[in-house]
Amino acid sequence: MRAVRWLAAAVLGLAGLAGLGEAVLRLAGFGHPILYDNRAAYGYRPLPDQTRRRFGGARVHVNNLGLRGADVTPERPPGALRILFLGDSVTWGGSYVDDAQLFATIAADTVRRQHPGRFTAVEALDAGVNGWGAENIAGLVGAEGEFPDAFGSDVWVLTILDDDFRRERTHVGEVPYFNVSPAMAWEELLVLGAYRIVTTYKRPKPAADFERIGREDLEVYRALAAHARARGALVLFVWHPDRAAVGGAEEVWKGRLAAMAADARVPLLDLLPAYRHAGGAALYVDGLHLGVAGHAVAGRAIGEWLAEAVLR
């Protein structure tokens, strides 16, 4: 009997610890991840009409169009300026950055402040998606994409980084994102942990493969810019350096992107000088992604460029 009572007490103790851990994880932001669809055209992107409080209390809202940020009408309102931000997790912004602190939001606010009364509204449509590459973007808004009208956007801002040139089209199953909600916060944590373990066994592709992928991605970006211009939109390429580059490391694809942009007559905004001037490595939360201060710097730089561009 004593052994049975000891076993029962141990089970109850473990259950209590698990329950306490569940509560702590939920307070930290786990348990209600953003949910994604699963599509052939573009791979995956957030399902529409989601609002979450995630890490550090950051508010993450996916609107009625499946884009991060405020709800908007499917068609651009008369007199409004609609800015579409395209890219990967850097553009998405992470679940630790509030919607109001994203560089997309800050850029749109900068344009609005510098042109008071000129537009009925300046809308920021954040179409960045974790893990995306150029082919995913083309599957969404390219000429043969799911939404070739790009939600009626007047401006396309494509934020590009070295890591993007290593990616083909990313699919569900290659990334630790959810199509259905996990039952527990522990479940989300275990999935993320398992993904980290599994990726330690991966080996990179041969250099020749990366070279081919990078060249193909350059042409995808060229085609995206041509498609946007054919629809009458202003296009801006934004170069986002990683943290190592801020410290002086080589930026492998920046020169080739700049050459392609010049040939295609697409403006390219390099954020490296702005980052170095404003604090350098301290703007990042890891090797690639910006913290709140970094988003503020990027948003102001992009917004100031756009504010001048709309006057031309």
Number of strands: 7
Rg value: 21 Å
CATH superfamily of the largest domain: SGNH hydrolase
> Per DSSP, what share of the residues sits in E-state strands of 2 or more residues?
5-15%
Q: What is the overall silhouette?
A: globular
Average pLDDT over all residues: 91
Which CATH class of the largest domain applies here? Alpha Beta
CATH domain fold name of the largest domain: Rossmann fold
Strand order within the widest beta sheet: 4-3-5-6-7
Characterization of the model:
The longest helix is centred in the first third of the chain and has 27 residues, at 2-28. The chain folds into two domains: 1-30; 33-309, 3-Layer(aba) Sandwich (Rossmann fold). 42% of the residues lie in helices and 11% in strands. The strands form two sheets. The protein has a five-stranded parallel sheet with strand order 4-3-5-6-7, sandwiched between helices. The N and C termini lie far apart (86 Å). β1 and β2 (59-62) form a beta hairpin. It is of the alpha/beta class and 312 residues long. The protein has helices at 2-28, 89-92, 103-114, 134-141, 185-199, 207-230, 243-246, 254-264, 272-278, 292-309, and strands at residues 50-53, 59-62, 81-86, 122-126, 155-160, 234-239, 268-270. α3 (103-114) runs parallel beside α10 (292-309), α4 (134-141) runs parallel beside α6 (207-230) and α6 (207-230) packs parallel to α8 (254-264).
